[in-house]
Amino acid sequence: MSGRNIGIVFRKELTDTLRDRRTLISSILLPLLLFPLLTVGFAGLAIVLARRATAEAFPVMLTGKEHAPELWRRIARIENFKMVPPSADYVRQINDKTLRAAVEFPPDFEKKLLAGVEEAQIVKVYHFQGELRSVAALRKIEKAVREYQEEIVKQRLDQRGVAQKALTPFEFEKQNVASAEKVGGNIAGFLLPYFIIVLCLTGAMYPAMDLTAGEKERGTLETLLASAASRMELVFGKFLLVLAMSLVTTLLSMISLVLTILLGAGLIRRVSSGFVIALSVKSLAAAFFLILPLAVIFSAVLLAISLFARNYREAQSYVGPLIFVVILPALVSFVPGMELNPRLALVPILNVSLAAKEVFSGNYPWKALGIILGSTSLYAVAALWWAVRQFHREKVLFRT
What we know:
Layout: H1 3-18, H2 21-55, E1 58-63, H3 69-76, E2 81-84, H4 90-95, E3 101-104, H5 109-115, E4 124-127, H6 132-160, H7 180-211, H8 213-218, H9 221-225, H10 231-263, H11 265-271, H12 281-308, H13 312-332, H14 350-360, H15 366-391, H16 394-397
Parallel strand pairs: 1-2, 1-3
Antiparallel strand pairs: 3-4
């Protein structure tokens, strides 16, 4: 096997690939734009929509005003609340989103409070769970009710000569020991591995299909097979090109991620002053090295599958299901409580996704990382062997 011939095949395929618009879009443009659009674009849109939602008028209905004049007055004067005349169909109106919330006061509510009746009374607040404006109205109502409730409690304690501190014999204080950067890295590690793995796959997808099924369709594969390069040299030349495109896509996505974090830092601080996303060079390098054997697997498997196809369209139909095979294990890493352990370190794709979550959080479980690199490298060798074998099968090469 000649390294010179492999290099010639690689350069020839690289020239052809750089002329293909689809490959350039999926391997270069998409990874560069994905994180800015997802992070800054969606975060900015969320801020605008949240501000607009909280600034507009909230139609709210209060029933039983005569039973709670003081609490009614407090709720009615909440900023941006628009009082709607009481009616019996408030549930329908809330579901139709013409009404944001409705409050129902029990009979003789305030009279019993002032009389010191210790019977538990229930103020019901009807809302649309999950609807942004309805939940915002609920929180404002809840705040007003809690404040009124605390005042009543204070009055009753004062009447009995009991200090308010008697209700809280001790304080419960939460102390976060993780730095803001580590918390931000933990949050970033929740989604980033998924996107990086998917981009690693898509970066290899179009070159693999074009260099196999695409050449069959154009009738240029026979010319390559008749050249001085051996089958093995052809396989490795094509494989190295597909692998290079996959790694370029992964690297560009990481660069895009870092630039997005730097440029979007001000926007993130506007959302939360204590929230910082900081990814160290060490964590990014560790994630990239974890992706390396996975990129080898993707490149080899995509070459073998695409070679089996008779044309580009058929290759797309074969490769399509592979996306779901990759996405499913990556999604499993989102399951609450799913953590890296020696057994999961042997599961391809899932192991890399879980390990990337750990390194982005600033944790480096070296034993598990070693198992992952070892097992994934073995899978990569097996995938590459399968791709080489496919290139030596005449029925696959000349399938019509």
